[in-house]
Amino acid sequence: MEKTSSHVWNSCLQIIKDNIPAQSFKTWFEPIKALRLEGNVLTIQVPSLFFYEWLEEHYVGLLRKTVKKQLGEDGRLEYNIVVEKSSTSIPYTTNMPSNGNGAEGKNQSMPMPISLNKDIKNPFVIPGLKKLQVDPQLNQNYTFENFIEGDCNRLARSAGYAVAGKPGGTSFNPLMIYGGVGLGKTHLVQAIGNEIKRTLTDKLVLYVSCEKFTQQFVDALKNNNINDFVNFYQAMDVLIMDDVHNFAGKEKTQDIFFHIFNHLHQSGKQLIITSDKAPKDLSGLEERLLSRFKWGLSADLQIPDLETRMAILNKKMYFDGIELPSEVIEYVAHNIDNNVRELEGAMVSLLAQSTLNKKEIDLNLAKSMLKNFIKNSSKEISMEYIQKLVCEYFEVPIEMVKSKTRKREIVQARQISMYLAKLHTKTSLKSIGAFFGGRDHSTVIYACQTVDDLIDTDKKFKGYVADIQKKLKMS
Ligand code: ADP
Ligand code: MG
Fold first, then answer.
1. Domain with 60 in it: what CATH number?
2. Domain containing 392: what range?
3. CB within 10 Å: which end of the chain, N or C, has fewer?
4. Is the pTM of the predicted complex or chain greater than 0.85?
5. pLDDT band of 105, cuts 50, 70, 90
6. What is the per-residue pLDDT for 473?
C-alpha cells in the first residue's frame, strides 16, 4: 500500500505524543497539518513563522528521529508556513543535521534556512482593512513633566526622553531601567509611552507588567491560542515590559518573551524594560535573555536626595492644588528617605488626617502622623501565605504541592515551602509536615537540609529562595 503524508505524519505523532507532555503536544503538534509526501520528503504545514522557530528550537531532535524512523535515513521534513490571513505560504526546509540524539534539541542552533523574513507581512496590517488598534494600557498621569529630575535619575530620564523622540532609532534598545521599589521605574517608562503616543500617534505602544504577560501566556496555553498571543505582541512598535525580575523561575514564559524580544528587536522596534536589579545581578533568568538586556542601555534610578524629595512633594502638592507649609514638606522629606512611593503615601495620610480631624496641617500634625507611619508593622507570616507565594513563584498549582507527586519542580516548591515555614513561622516540624500534604517530621527535616545544601551549591537555586524571601518580607 502506498503511504500518504497523513499516514506518515500520524505515525510520527503517535511517537511524539508518548515523548512530550500532553499540554505541549496539544499546543505545538495538534495544529500541524500534513501537506504532502514526495519521495522521502514530508511537508507539514505550521500556522506561523513563530511556530516553525519554536518547533525547530525545542523539538528538532525528536522530529528528526521520528521522521527518519518512518521514512528511512534519507527522510526529510519540510515546513510550509502560513502567513496569516493571506493565502501565501512559504516553503521552509529543515536541515535535519545528523549530529545530536537527544529527544529535545534544545540548544541546537539551527540556521534560518531561507531568509524569507522580509516577505512575511505583518498579520495585523492587512491592506484594505482597518489597522490594528491597541489600548496602550498607559496611565495618563505618568508624564515627563511631572517626573522630577535629580542626580538620582538624570541618565535614565534623558535616555528615556531620547527613546521617546525616536523609538527604535537610538542605540538605547532595549532601554533597561532598574532600581529599588518605589523609585519611579513604572512612572518613567509610562512617561516614555505617553510621550510617544502624544507625538507619534500612529505608533503601536503597549505597556504590560511581567505578571500580566505571564498570566496571558498561561491562558493562551490553556486556550490553545499561543499563535495569536505571539502575533499580537510581535505587532507592537514599542513594547514596555515592567518588572522583568518577576520572570525568575518561569522558564516557559521567558522562552516566549525571548522570541518576541528577538522578533521586535530585529525589526527595529523599541523595547523598554524595568527590573529591580541590574542585569548582571538578576537571578533566575536565562543567560540568553540577560545578554539581550545588555545590548542597549541600562540606567539605574537611585534614591533621590533631600532636595529632589522636596521637589517631588512640592510638585505633587501643586498638581493636587494643595498648599503646605514648607517646614512640613521638609520634615516629611527628611524623615522618609528610602522610597518615593512611601513619601507620597505619608503625604496622603497627612492630608487624610487633616481632613478627617478638621485640623490644620502643621509640623505637629506631621510629627504625630509620621510616628505611626514609620512604625514597622511586622505581622505574622502564615504557612498558607508561604505556600501561595512559592506556588505563584514557580507557577505550580497549590494542590500539587500537597499531593504525593515526585515531579522535580513540585518537590522543589514543596521543599522550599517547608524550609520557609520552618524559618519564618513558629510552627512545629510535625505541623509543618501535616500541612504540606500529611508528611511526617523527618520529611521536613530532610527538606530543610536539602534546601540548605542547594543554597550553598547552586547559585540559581539560591536566587530563587532569596527572591521568595524578599516577597515574604515585603508583605
Ligand atoms: P517603581 O515602579 O520603581 O516601584 P513607581 O514608578 O511606581 O516606582 O513610583 C512610585 C511613586 O513615586 C509614583 O507615584 C511616582 O509618580 C512617584 N515618583 C517616583 N519618582 C518620581 C520622580 N522623580 N518625580 C515624581 N514622582 C516620582
Ligand atoms: Mg513599578
1. 3.30.300.180
2. 383-474
3. N
4. no
5. very low
6. 74
121 and 228, same domain (yes or no): yes
Q: To test the ligand 1 pocket, which listed residue (274, 336, 341, 348) has its Cβ within 8 A of the most ligand atoms?
A: 341
Of 37-51, 122-136, 208-222, 352-366, the range with the lowest mean pLDDT is 122-136
Instruction: Copy the grid coordinates of residue 142.
Output: 505618568
Q: How many domains does the chain have?
A: 4
* Ligand 1 atom nearest to 304, measured from its CA: 23
What residues flank ligand 1, with Cβ below 6 Å? Answer: 146-148, 153, 179, 181-187, 312, 340-341, 344
Asked, for residue 278, whether it belongs to a domain, the answer is yes
* Phi, psi of 70, rounded to the nearest 5 degrees: -80, -35
pLDDT digits (tens, 9 = 90+) for 226-239: 999 999 999 999 99
Identity of residue 58? H
73 in a structural domain: yes
363 and 420 together in one domain? no
Strand, coil or helix: what is 131? coil
> Where does 169-298 have alpha helices with state H?
185-199, 210-223, 226-234, 251-266, 287-293
Distance, CA of 442 to CA of 408 (rounded, Å):
19
Residue 157 CA, closest ligand 1 atom number: 23
Exposed (0-12), middle (13-18) or buried (19+): which is 101, by Cβ within 10 Å? exposed
Cα(243) to centroid of ligand 1, in Å? 14
CA 301 to ligand 1: nearest atom: 3
The per-residue pLDDT of the chain, averaged, comes to 85
Q: Are 113 and 81 in contact (CB under 8 A)?
A: no
Rounded distance, CA 298 to CA 312, Å?
24
Per-state percent for the chain, helix, strand, coil, to nearest 5: 55, 10, 35
Q: What residues sit around ligand 2, an ion, with C-beta below 5 angstroms? A: 185-186
Residues 158-167: pLDDT tens digits? 999 999 999 9
How far apart are the C-alpha atoms of 183 and 221, rounded to whole Å?
Answer: 34
Q: Strand, coil or helix: what is 462?
A: helix
Calculate how far, in angstroms, residue 94's C-alpha sits from the geometric centre of ligand 1: 49
The position carrying cell 523622540 is 165
Residue 311 lies in a domain: yes
Q: Is residue 114 part of a domain?
A: yes
